[in-house]
Recover the amino acids of this structure.
């Protein structure tokens, strides 16, 4: 999503000259964002590391795609001795990329892995992305993840979630909620945090302390972190979600034109 990439770049530009930039994609799925950014900015002076986090089985499949794609191997600068290890939480690691198999409900394990990847470094900035991923977790599981990310120095959080500004009884709201229930993928957080003020209160209580409005249709809030929420997508998400899912199911590898 272009808006997320733009937000990441703004954070990076405002964070320089920090030595290390970590971009962590929570519930990454088959999102090509890490490969896009590594390829597009490889000739800059920015010291990027992109970290994909999802369930171990999905990360295993993503690593297999990389195993079968010389283009992706070149983008992440994969060396001969850096092999895919399905038995390790960090299934693949290079100087610029890591693929992590982790259940985010286990926040202690999540923190341990992130620390192993260098997020405790005080000279680094960590940008966490949750693009409609924490939305599928109950707040009792999603909120501890957000709180845990706020413990890292110079951390930012970019989030994309559905909102219900007119309440659950609005006709569109009912249609959207029924749509995801029909897919057997109910949205778990939206009724607890249905509006931007609710999201601000959420992130403030979880360690994020400031906010920035980006424009009339999308908002960016920041603490020692950044929250990005787009009301625009409340009207588009239902239409595009299933199309995107169907396309991703068909992807056998990530071809260059997607990047």
């Amino acid at each position: 999503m272009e808006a997320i990439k733009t937000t990441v770049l703004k954070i990076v530009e405002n964070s320089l000259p920090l030595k290390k930039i970590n971009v962590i994609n929570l519930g990454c799925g088959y999102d090509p964002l890490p490969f896009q950014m590594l390829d597009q900015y490889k000739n800059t002076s920015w010291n990027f590391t992109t970290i994909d986090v999802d369930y171990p089985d999905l990360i295993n499949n993503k690593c297999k795609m990389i195993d079968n794609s010389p283009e992706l191997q070149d983008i992440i600068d994969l060396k001969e001795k850096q092999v895919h290890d399905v038995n390790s939480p960090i299934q693949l690691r290079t100087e610029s990329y890591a693929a992590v198999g982790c259940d985010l409900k286990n926040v202690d394990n999540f923190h341990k892995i992130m620390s192993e990847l260098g997020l405790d470094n005080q000279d680094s900035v960590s940008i966490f992305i949750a693009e409609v991923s924490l939305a599928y977790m109950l707040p009792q599981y999603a909120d501890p993840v957000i709180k845990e990310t706020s413990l890292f120095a110079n951390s930012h959080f970019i989030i994309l979630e559905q909102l219900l500004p007119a309440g659950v009884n609005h006709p569109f709201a009912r249609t959207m909620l029924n749509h995801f229930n029909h897919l057997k993928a109910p949205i778990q957080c939206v009724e607890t945090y249905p509006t931007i003020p609710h999201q601000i209160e959420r992130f403030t209580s979880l360690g994020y302390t400031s906010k920035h409005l980006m424009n009339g249709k999308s908002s960016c809030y920041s603490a020692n972190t950044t929250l990005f929420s787009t009301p625009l997508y409340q009207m588009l998400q239902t239409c595009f979600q299933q199309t995107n899912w169907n396309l991703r199911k068909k992807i056998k590898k990530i071809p260059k034109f997607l990047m």
